[in-house]
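wait is this the right file?? whatever heres the structure
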C-alpha cells in the first residue's frame, strides 16, 4: 500500500490567492504526496468535500502548570497579575506530580481537539522541589507521538528575590527545559531586573537553549526591560532564538521613545508574543478612565516586519478564570484589541496563531503542509481564515503525525419561520 491515509479534495489554506483543491497522501506519519488527483488508494480515505486544510494551531505561550486551578484556594478578586502570583504562590505549595500532570494532560487533549498540535508551556521554577517542571518534562515525553510540547523554565517569583531561585533556574536547564525565562519587571529593583536579563542570556549560551522572557507585563511606562533584551540580542546576534512575551508596557510608552525602540527591535530581530485574552483583563486595573488596553503594539510590530504571535497564556487559573484553550478565541480577541480588523490584518492574526508561532518555537522543520513534513494538519469547516476567526468552530478533523486524533461534527440547527422548530 502506497499510503496509510489519503485525504481527498481538501482546499489548502492561502491568504492572497484562490486555494486549490488537492488530495494529500500520508505514509509512516509523513506527508508523502500532494496532488490534484492522487491515483492510488489507501486503507483509510476521507473525502473533505472542499473543506479548508490548514497547518495546525500553535500555542506559543501557556502556563500548563496552573491550568484548571481557578478558585483554588481562592478567586482573584482584584483581577491583577500580582494577586494572581500570590494565589498561585499558595496553590503551588500543594502541587504534586500527579496534580500537575493530570491537569496539564486534560488541557493538552482539549487543545488537540481544538487543532493545537504544538505547545510552548512555562513551568514555574521558583518552587523549591521543581515539581511543576518535572511533571511537564515527563508529560512532554509521554505525549510526543501526538503533541509537541516545549517547556520554558520560568522563575515566577524573580531570579534574585530569593537566594535559591538562581540555582533552581539553572537546575531546571540541567533537567532538560527547552528554554530559559525571566521576569525582570518583578525583580526587586531596576538593577536586579537588568542583571536578570543578562543572566538569562548567559544561561541560554551555557546550555544552548532558547529564551522566552516575561517582559514588562505591567502598565508602568517606566518598565523598560525590553530595551535590555533587545540590546543583549543585538550584542549576541541570537535574536531569532529570543522571545519577549507580554511586553504590555510597550502600549504605555510615549511615542517618541517607542519610535526609537522600534528601530532597535528591528536590529535585534527578536520574536514577540502577545496574550490579548488575558492582558485585556489583567492590565488597566490601576486606571480609572480612560482605561488602557494593556496590550503591546502588535499592529506596529507586525507592520515593522517583526515576528509576532498570540498566546492564550492561561486557562481557568489564578490569572484568568475563563477560556477553553482555543487559539481562535485568542486571535478573535487580538483582532479586536489590537485594531486588526482590515482584511489583511485579520489574516495576519490567523498567522499569529499558526506560522508565526511556529517560527518563534523553532519548529519549522516539522511544521507546514509539504512533502516530507510530519503529517500534522487540521481540516476546518469554514471557507477561509477570516471566517475561521469570525465563527470560531472546532476543526472538523485534527490529524497528528499521520493519525486522526480528533474529529468534531459541527452543531446543526433547525429553523422554522412558523416557530415550530423540530
Ligand atoms: N505569571 C506571570 O507572571 N504572568 C502571567 N501572565 C501569568 C503567570 C499567567
Ligand atoms: Fe505568561
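ok assuming it is, sequence goes like this
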Amino acid at each position: 500500500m502506497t499510503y496509510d491515509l489519503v485525504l481527498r479534495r481538501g482546499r489548502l489554506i492561502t491568504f492572497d490567492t484562490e486555494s486549490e483543491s488537492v488530495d494529500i497522501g500520508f505514509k509512516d506519519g509523513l506527508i508523502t504526496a500532494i496532488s490534484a488527483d492522487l491515483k492510488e488508494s489507501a486503507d483509510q480515505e476521507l473525502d473533505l468535500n472542499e473543506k479548508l486544510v490548514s497547518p495546525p494551531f500553535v500555542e506559543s505561550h501557556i502556563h500548563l502548570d496552573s491550568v484548571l486551578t481557578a478558585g483554588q484556594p481562592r478567586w482573584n478578586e482584584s483581577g491583577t497579575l500580582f494577586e494572581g502570583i500570590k494565589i498561585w504562590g499558595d496553590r503551588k505549595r500543594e502541587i504534586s506530580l500527579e496534580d500537575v500532570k493530570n491537569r496539564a494532560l486534560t488541557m493538552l487533549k482539549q487543545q488537540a481537539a481544538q487543532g493545537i498540535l504544538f505547545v510552548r508551556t512555562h513551568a514555574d521554577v521558583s518552587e523549591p522541589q521543581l515539581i511543576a517542571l518535572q511533571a511537564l518534562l515527563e508529560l512532554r515525553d509521554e505525549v510526543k507521538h501526538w503533541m509537541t510540547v516545549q517547556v520554558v523554565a520560568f522563575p515566577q517569583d524573580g531570579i534574585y528575590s530569593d537566594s535559591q531561585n538562581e540555582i533552581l533556574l539553572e537546575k531546571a536547564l540541567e533537567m532538560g527545559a527547552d528554554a530559559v525565562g525571566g521576569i525582570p519587571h518583578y525583580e526587586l529593583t531596576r538593577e536586579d531586573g537588568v542583571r536578570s536579563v543578562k543572566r538569562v542570556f548567559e544561561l541560554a549560551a551555557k546550555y544552548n537553549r532558547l529564551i522566552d522572557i516575561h517582559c514588562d507585563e505591567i502598565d508602568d511606562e517606566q518598565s523598560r526591560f525590553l530595551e535590555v533584551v533587545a540590546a543583549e540580542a543585538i550584542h549576541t546576534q541570537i535574536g531569532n532564538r529570543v522571545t519577549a512575551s507580554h511586553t504590555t508596557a510597550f502600549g504605555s510608552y510615549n511615542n517618541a521613545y517607542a519610535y526609537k525602540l522600534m528601530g532597535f527591535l528591528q536590529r535585534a530581530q527578536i520574536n514577540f508574543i502577545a496574550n490579548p485574552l488575558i492582558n485585556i483583563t489583567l492590565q488597566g486595573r490601576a486606571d480609572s478612565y480612560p482605561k488602557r488596553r494593556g496590550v503591546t503594539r502588535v499592529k506596529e510590530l507586525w507592520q515593522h516586519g517583526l515576528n509576532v504571535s498570540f498566546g492564550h497564556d492561561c486557562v481557568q487559573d489564578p490569572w484568568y478564570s475563563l477560556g477553553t484553550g482555543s487559539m481562535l478565541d485568542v486571535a478573535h480577541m487580538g483582532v479586536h484589541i489590537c485594531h486588526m480588523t482590515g482584511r489583511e490584518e485579520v489574516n495576519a492574526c490567523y498567522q499569529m496563531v499558526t506560522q508565526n508561532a511556529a517560527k518563534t518555537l523553532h519548529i519549522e522543520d516539522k511544521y507546514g503542509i509539504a512533502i516530507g513534513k510530519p503529517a500534522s494538519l487540521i481540516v476546518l469547516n469554514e471557507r477561509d481564515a477570516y471566517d475561521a476567526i469570525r465563527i470560531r468552530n472546532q476543526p472538523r478533523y485534527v490529524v497528528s503525525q499521520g493519525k486522526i486524533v480528533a474529529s468534531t461534527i459541527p452543531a446543526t440547527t433547525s429553523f422554522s419561520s412558523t416557530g415550530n422548530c423540530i
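DSSP finds 13 helices and 16 strands in the chain. so i think its the right one actually
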